[in-house]
Amino acid sequence: MPHAPLIQLENVTLTRGGRVVLDDLSLDIAERRVGLIGTNGSGKSSLVRLLNGLLAAEKGRVTVHGLDAATQAGELPRKVGFIFQNPDHQIIFPTVAEEIAFSLEQAGMPRREAAKEAVPALARFQRAHWAERPVHALSEGEKQFLCIIAVLVMRPALVILDEPFSSLDLPTRRRLESLVAGLEQQVILVAHELDAFEGYDRVIWLHAGRLRGDGPPEAVIAAYRAFAEALA
Ligand SMILES: Nc1ncnc2c1ncn2[C@@H]1O[C@H](COP(=O)(O)OP(=O)(O)OP(=O)(O)O)[C@@H](O)[C@H]1O
């Protein structure tokens, strides 16, 4: 039985820096594991930024897990966890425990309780020993892992990862992939690593702000590879 769409874009147009980057785009997304691919500048990051309220469409309607992105934008960050390509864009506190405590506070926990709960929260990800570590002393992979933990402790309904693997070595990437694979939440992954979508329900291919492909990963990725080969 088809599920009701968790995410809906209706005739969405977005302009950035005077250029149309999403062009009258309509999408219904009900699947739990969704990949987003496309060449540089095709609009992937712009699209996912509409879903967590970092950008607003000037035309059309965006609905995310029951929230209207235009009128309920303030509520989106609690529903939508966002993991950026560069962990330094997300991490703001000097120590790991402070970063996690801040996330818990953002999720509505009183400050004192959040400070006490940070270590148990880290322990759920087998990282209690990181609590007092200065964030700047973590490796890139460890920082990315911390960002994911910081998002997951907020228990979002949707987790968006925007090119999370670019600076990670293969073992660290695999560890993150298996963490993501085990999540109960809906996941949208933006990645250039085309083998990252194994087991995904659906892959969406954006090109110049429009849908160029959409369907099961194997078919969409094969079409994208053929397109890339033809360009090379
Ligand atoms: N901060 C910005 N200000 C103005 N225009 C921007 C900005 N960021 C992106 N754009 C424009 O939006 C277009 C789409 O960018 P976007 O980051 O959404 O693409 P992308 O598919 O995520 O690309 P990449 O794979 O390179 O990350 C770009 O071609 C660029 O012209």
UniProtKB/TrEMBL annotation:
Family affiliation: Belongs to the ABC transporter superfamily.
Residue ranges crossing the lipid bilayer per the database entry: none
Keywords of the record: ATP-binding, Hydrolase, Nucleotide-binding, Transport
Classification via Gene3D superfamilies: P-loop containing nucleotide triphosphate hydrolases
PROSITE patterns, sorted: ABC_TRANSPORTER_2
Gene source species: Ancylobacter polymorphus
Name of the top EC class for this enzyme: hydrolase
Sequence ranges assigned to domain ABC transporter in this UniProt record: 7-230
Descriptive protein name: Biotin transport system ATP-binding protein
InterPro entries registered for this protein in UniProt: AAA+_ATPase, ABC_transporter-like_ATP-bd, ABC_transpr_CbiO/EcfA_su, ECF_ABC_transporter_ATP-bd, P-loop_NTPase
E.C. code: 3.6.3.-
GO molecular function, one term: ATP binding
Domain of life: Bacteria
